[in-house]
Design brief:
Blueprint lengths: L4 E4 L1 H4 L10 H14 L3 E6 L10 H4 L15 E7 L4 E2 L3 E2 L1 H7 L10 E6 L4 H13 L3 E6 L7 H10 L7 E5 L7 H14 L4 E4 L7 H10 L4 E4 L13 H11 L11 H15 L5 H8 L4 H9 L5 H9 L3 H4 L4 H12 L9 E3 L1 E2 L7 E5 L3 H5 L1 H11 L2 E5 L11 E4 L2 H10 L7 E4 L3 E3 L7 E3 L1 E4 L5 E2 L3 E4 L4 H11 L4 E5 L10 H15 L8 E4 L8 E2 L8
Parallel strand pairs: 1-2, 1-10, 2-3, 3-6, 6-7, 7-8, 8-9, 9-10, 12-18, 13-14, 13-22, 14-15, 15-16, 16-18, 19-21, 22-23, 23-24
Antiparallel strand pairs: 4-5, 11-17, 20-21
Helix pairs in contact: 7-8, 11-13, 13-15
């Protein structure tokens, strides 16, 4: 049996969670550990052209910052280049930019360059492979979306690659939709057209990354991708530690050290997995079975606002035609259908009465930040002094004795409100759902129709349009329906940690949109508790006697 070569792609695939901003000291420690594990190649990340967003060290693999690699002699290094990064619609492959970003191999620590391409960019990828070979690199051709291709497309593509001089062709199960029998068939098909080494890159949407890799090994492939704890987009990849154990014990590859990773897994990767939550779940498997681009799933799950049933229904509503490439407008369209369902089973659901807004000179909107409880007495005094309309985002559990309207977006939060008993103390509960299951209905439950719109915020008595499915955004729209002079917000603290920066940015963009909108003419929004958002702040204590 030919020895299987192992490529670790953790820093490249895992970088989707932290914008490739791995601490350099961690990278040094990580490479030291991998150097002892017996694997063959480490993929440090991408080489990319500059753009207007901050990405970290592993998105650019800047050669000037890699001198520490000379200390680790047992391993080769790779970077990936995404063809679409270097393709112009008018002129095709941007060769000068490729040569600007990628130095001659003699000037770097890298031995390998991996080209990521879909079927439609194969001609440009073939041209790119020729340039990289001239620069001295060993080149892999990672064909993404293999499950989307029929046999004839694969044959024609491989025929075009016949004279490309690539060193390895990779079968990439980009959507995690393949099963072991598919892997065996695809390896056999590639073998008939291509005589060189074959690699496999599996995703774990169906929980089959390991089984598919075993099938590939049995079919004779020579290169395997893996990442620590499977760290990678969505459901993640084949687990490196799992592969090392298997090859060590089942294939007697005694040069491997499957125990070398354990300390770094416990120190770094287990906390990261607990936070980023990659790995198998129902929605990722559904996306794998339907060949849905993983970004759809990530966008739905990252907001933490959708119930799992809603996520599943939205994914099910994405057509095969729209599934292959992420389309934010299509996601919005399908989400709006799911979020505003039609009741078809008489007796199982109840249509709600619409919410009727009433005028208020001031509105207080309450969110669940820690400062809400700390300053609850002063906030209560402010609301009572101004006879404010009080809007509570979900059940904060703080103001059960205060006349308030509780704002709820999804069924999970409505269920929590019912189970806590807080629904009995709220004057009204307002949701974006026109209908609810009969078991969730209470007499003070009302609705305002809510829709999603990319970059939109619109308010009318009949409908509120918000850019993201976030209850605080919906509450701001409700507040404006009361035509207030001032909107006080409390408990909207924002985030300072790197791990929540996308959530913070999303809400900050919303505040900017609101403040620049015509709705704010002659109106103000003031945070009366500490906040990290760029908003006007005035202490609640300065506003009460």
């Amino acid at each position: 049996m030919i020895k299987t070569k192992i490529l670790d792609c953790t820093l490249r695939d895992g970088g989707y969670y932290n914008d490739w901003d791995f601490d350099v000291d961690f990278v040094k420690k990580y490479i030291s550990v991998l150097n002892d594990s017996g694997i063959d190649i480490i993929e440090l990340g991408y080489k990319s052209r500059a753009n207007d967003k901050f990405y970290g060290f592993c998105h650019y693999c800047s050669d000037s910052q890699l001198d520490f690699l000379k200390n680790y002699k047992n391993i080769e290094y790779s970077f990936m280049i995404d063809v679409k990064d270097f393709v112009n619609a008018e002129s095709g492959l941007d060769v000068p930019e490729v040569k600007r970003v990628i130095k001659n191999k003699k000037q770097t620590f890298f031995s390998w360059c991996r080209i990521a391409t879909y079927h439609e960019t194969v001609p440009q990828a073939i041209k790119l492979s020729g340039i990289l070979k001239e620069l001295g690199y060993k080149v892999t051709f990672n064909i993404m979306g293999f499950s989307l291709l029929n046999n004839e497309q694969i044959r024609k593509m491989l025929l075009g690659l016949k004279d490309s001089l690539v060193d390895v062709i990779y079968i990439s199960d980009s959507f995690g939709s393949l099963v072991p029998e598919d892997i065996t068939d695809f390896v056999d098909l590639v073998r008939r057209q291509y005589q060189g080494p074959i690699g496999i890159h599996t995703h774990d949407n169906q929980g089959l990354a390991f089984a598919n890799t075993i099938a590939a090994i049995n079919a004779g492939i020579e290169y395997i991708d893996a990442s620590v704890l499977g760290m990678g987009r969505g459901a993640g990849n084949l687990r490196l530690e799992q592969l090392l154990l298997f090859l060590y014990f089942k294939h007697n590859e005694r040069h491997l050290n499957p125990y070398s990773l354990l300390d770094i897994i416990q120190e770094y990767f287990m906390p990261w997995q607990a936070h980023f939550q990659w790995g198998w779940d129902f929605s990722y498997m559904l996306s794998g079975l339907k060949n849905i681009h993983p970004t759809y799933c990530q966008k739905l799950k990252s907001s933490h606002q959708y119930a799992i049933t809603q996520v599943a229904n939205i994914l099910s509503g994405i057509s095969d035609q729209d599934a292959v490439k992420y389309n934010p407008r299509k996601l919005i369209e399908v989400s709006n259908r799911v979020l505003n369902p039609v009741c078809e089973e008489e007796g199982k659901c109840i249509k709600l009465d619409p919410y009727k807004s009433r005028h208020a000179d001031s509105v207080v909107i309450l969110a669940g930040g820690v400062h809400l409880r700390q300053h609850k007495d002063a906030i209560r005094a402010l609301a009572k002094k101004n006879k404010s309309l009080v809007l509570e985002c979900n059940d904060t559990g703080v103001f059960l004795d205060l006349r308030r309207t509780t704002v709820i977006l999804n069924r999970v939060r409505l269920t929590e409100l019912r189970d806590s008993g807080a629904s009995k103390s709220a004057k009204e509960i307002v949701t974006a759902m026109k209908i609810v299951d009969s078991g969730l209905f209470v007499k003070n439950l009302r609705y305002i129709e809510c829709s999603l719109g990319i970059g939109q915020f619109k308010v009318s008595p009949d409908q509120i349009i918000i850019p993201s499915y976030i209850v605080g955004m919906f509450a701001v729209g409700m507040a404006l329906l009361s035509d207030p002079k001032i909107i006080y917000i409390a408990g909207f603290e924002g985030f300072v940690s790197e791990k929540n920066k996308d959530e913070h940015k999303e809400m900050q963009n919303f505040w900017n949109m609101v403040l620049q909108s015509p709705y704010m003419k002659h109106r103000r929004i003031i945070s009366v508790t500490p906040t990290h958002y760029d908003l006007s702040v005035q202490s609640v204590y300065s506003l009460i006697d």
